Amino acid sequence: MEEVKIGIFGGGTVGGGIVEIIESKREHFQKMTGKNLSVKTICVRDLDKPRDFAVPEGCKVTTEFDDILGDASLDIIVEVMGGTTLANDVVCTALGNGKHIVTANKALIAEKLAEIESLVIDVNKDREGDDTVEFRYEAAVCGGIPIIRSLQSDVVGDEIEMLSGIINGCTNFMLTAMDVYGKSYDEALSEASDLGYAEADPTLDVGGFDARSKLKILMRLAYGIDVDEDDISCRGITELTKLDFQYAKMMGGTIKLVGVAKAVSDGKVAAFVSPAYITQSDSLFSVSGATNAVELISKNLQTTTLIGQGAGRFPTANSCINDIVSLAKGDKTPLPFNPPADNVQFVNNYESNFFIRLKYRDALGITRQVGEVCEKYGVSIHSILQNPITSRDDAAFAIITERVPISSVKKFCAEIEDLDWCRGPSFYMPVLREDWESDLV
């Protein structure tokens, strides 16, 4: 039986999961592909580190990159080592050598996708049919959810009007704990750390930066636009309090960290990552724990929602395996990369209804001053929420606005925070609900 020889960079959580699935499903994969999948070499950082998986018989474990990159017999190279610098060297060298690549490296894809696209096109310009090189990265975004394949293969004749989703499992777990179980932010983070959802330094997750990287990748596939991550409006969950969830429940909904991108008139695309108020009728409302979900709104299919585990050993490894098996079968990605858009412009301002929470020390004239600042920046008030006051020196209320650009909200909050009665920074987030549907401008 023909053998498909595989080299893996990374023998950690995901790399071990890939090996385990290949070994446990060997006969199944043979029936599917007519070939024997064989892990020949695993490159690791430390040979003495204990492994939580069995190394296949005859498989070489090494610290030398060239044991994989210099092996002409290998068919597929899997990169799950993490990081960007060394990983980029591995990917580019392997592609240049005519090897298929499978990766789960979100940071690499977000930073280098455009360059890798160009390299793949260049490598394949003199190749035809089965000889062409494939670059697969399904596992890089939302782990076990096949969102990359969907954008590459299932909507090629469609037009994506909007994509939105819960694309970070750690923060969704934390927000579920705060909403359902009344945990504080610190309590929720501690629990997420204990369960392995949060890294030792959780900044990328709780700051919204992990979700922003994923959103950038999805935007490249959905709209053919390459955006600088720093240009995408990004707000994490660190400022959320129990009080915000109380207000959300008063309105009949909850709070989720979402990534949203939308095509707007005149060839513009806008996007943001932010906590957002979600109504009970929204498909994202019931997505709890570490689960991820992505909703696509398109011209032909209208609404498509994909829900599943976004991270972890086997969800991520499973997506890598899907890519490996597809390559072993000789499948070709119908549209590996959406053509770069010539006339699409990214704009980092968006319009929505907003929730604005203000803390204050009780004083005369607060309502009048808030109204004056609202008028100054064109912020119309839809409603005001407030719990009974227990301390006049440390109280709070929330404003729900009519639709307004986020730029106006930022100016409003900055001026309010300079007033004597305002206690500390304000907090704002978009309100996403059917009768107040967010629009991006």
UniProtKB/TrEMBL annotation:
Record-listed E.C. numbers: 1.1.1.3
Alphabetized Pfam families for the sequence: Homoserine_dh, NAD_binding_3
Homoserine dehydrogenase catalytic domain sequence ranges: 146-325
Catalyses which reaction(s): L-homoserine + NADP(+) = L-aspartate 4-semialdehyde + NADPH + H(+)
Keywords for the protein's UniProt record, in alphabetical order: Amino-acid biosynthesis, Methionine biosynthesis, NADP, Oxidoreductase, Threonine biosynthesis
Gene3D superfamilies listed in its UniProt record: 3.30.70.260, Dihydrodipicolinate Reductase, domain 2, NAD(P)-binding Rossmann-like Domain
Family: Belongs to the homoserine dehydrogenase family.
Name under which the protein is recorded: Homoserine dehydrogenase
Lineage start: Eukaryota, Sar, Stramenopiles, Ochrophyta, Bacillariophyta
